[in-house]
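Quick one - inputs below.
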Amino acid sequence: VPARVDYRRNPEELLRLVQADERRERRGRLKIFLGYASRVGKSVRMFAEGRRRKLRGQDVVVAAVQPGVTPEVQSILSALEAIPTLTEKYGGQEYQVIDMAALFRRHPGVCVIDGLAYFNPPGSRNPERWQDVEELLERGVSVITAVNVQHIREKQDEVERITGKRACDSVPQAFLLEAEEIEVVDASPDALIGRSDGITPGSRQLAELRELALLLAADVVDRQLQDYLDSHGITASWGTQERILVCLTPRSNAAAMLKSGLRNKLRFHGALLVAYVEQKGLGPGDQEKLNRHLEAAREMGAEMHCLRGDDFVRAILDFAREQRVTQLFLGHTSRPPAVRLRRGPIDRLIDAAEDFDLRIFPHAEDK
Amino acid sequence: VTPEAAPPRRGRLKIYLGYAAGVGKTYRMLEEAQALKGEGVDLVVGYFEPHGRQETIAKIEGLEIIPRRALTYAGSQFQEMDTEAILRRKPAVALVDEFAHTNVPGSERVKRWQDVKALQEAGIDVITTMNVQHLESLNDQVWHVTGVRVRETIPDWVVDEADEVVFVDLTPRALRNRLERGVVYGPDKAKRAMENFFVESNLTALREMALRHTAHEVEEKLSASPVALEAAGLLEKGQASGAQAGQTIRKDRILICLTGSPSSAMLIRRGKRVADYLQADCLAIHVARNGASVEDVERHMSFARNLRIETHILEGDGIARCITDFARREGITQIFMGRSRSQPWWKQFRETVVQQVVRCAHDIQITIVADRRRPA
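Output:
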């Protein structure tokens, strides 16, 4: 049994990859520093990188700094050329807007931009700063920038659960995935606690935000790993993330299997997939049971897959390999054990399951 | 020796966790040390591995260094951390590089993490560094991804007991640039490293593991915090009033069935890892039978105990019966087994042990752990 799955790319896929490569070549490169709270040290790391690149001969310009610059950051900034932001007034408020016209004239090699999540006042060139960055990238300017996990759009529900607040300015997660590099700025929450600035959350909130940032980065890195493997034509059967596949059959104890699958997914921060093999000649009773199981899985929000194939075991094995599954959940067969002339599906799965763990669940009726 | 009234406060442990050599763990540790020194903290460098990196060496300036101890083993000289000297000096904080290091035979303790424990016992706070691939539970995964079997490992509970784990990040691209510029290793070693262990896919996978592990440590600390316990208390009140009835999660108890087979090490690591993530109890048994190599079994049993798994040796004729009886008696919810070796065709009509357990323990979940091999 091969440990690797052989994927053949179709012509459209190849074309897409080539076009993406060409686009990437013309485009500036994006590097994002991701933190979990203000003052974990993102700005220092970001500007220090700008300075390092300048020392290595790159053409670096600072296009946006955040208010309240520390002496450490100030000393780095003094070594770098700046194109200051423009102050614009709107509705009685002042906004700092990147001077895009000046940047286009100057056309640096690398642009350092703090506060990626800022939004621009109405009437600006782009509504949000990350769109300014996108435009610079399109024009071949590389950008180094920084953002906190609180400002990721798709994470707003979780952020609100943790801090009780939603950010009004945010960056779509897809933009993070476009970055060539994303670097996590981690630090002890202890160093941040006790700041009586009224903004820094408490220790528990900080720990939860920290976990959120680390897992977000892990997901981005996982995606990068997959892209790398795909673009190099490598198909690995391994993954660094737990991927749980629950296989439902009419007789399986779906409630227990789904509950356990969900718990594993949550504890491992992994993925949960649910699959069933389409079987011909299923009696109406069994079909109804299966439908009920599938409904329960759907309600849980699991990713559902219907597998086709004459051979039940083959269909599951192929799907599990393709999806880089690490744990496969299956119900007991209740075949009488005395009949052993043909090996049952569980025996065959045990034999073939080389790259994933196989967990066999008791039937509900057996309890 | 004067008897002391009370044992000293246990020192705190902080780990800078990275995913490869050269990401900047030691640098971050020294940066923190300089900041602490600036605040007037009594701090020494207990062990420091400069690897000839200029930026890092510059960061050590002005810090007090406890000289290493020279040991002779098999005719060669080795430099080890002088734990006793640090204990005599008794600083508030000690920096100890390379947490996963194994001491040369003849040292007081086998592993550096044991030296660190001794320092903590004496009330000294320790800041240390390690890479994610040294974690015992990730050993098989790391091997699977990189092809490297890491020999110097640290049991996960040692890292779990740290007060803080901070992730030190550098993107694989930046790390490879550093290698190219000769910051991490000399030119020959750097070239070899870039073609082998430091290929981008390895680095990316290791980095993901480190990120996920740090997140796991943060989550573990959250669920162990007084706030979480209080919240659990509140939940019980809710259950008493019937609001949460039927929602109680029965605590999982995982049983690992180990044998003398080499794949048992993988089985133990996998079972323990799942147990840790599910916050389950973890037990291991071996059913003694004539003919089995006792030595191999004992090695696995002792390995399991080092990972803080409760072990038992059972005796009986029917292996499957022994396992399932024990499981019922102990309230086991999941049995972890390795695959039975494939049978010649004439024996395939007979049930393997795994098949028997699957049949006998029809009311318990059974996990057959894959004998994950590296793709060629």
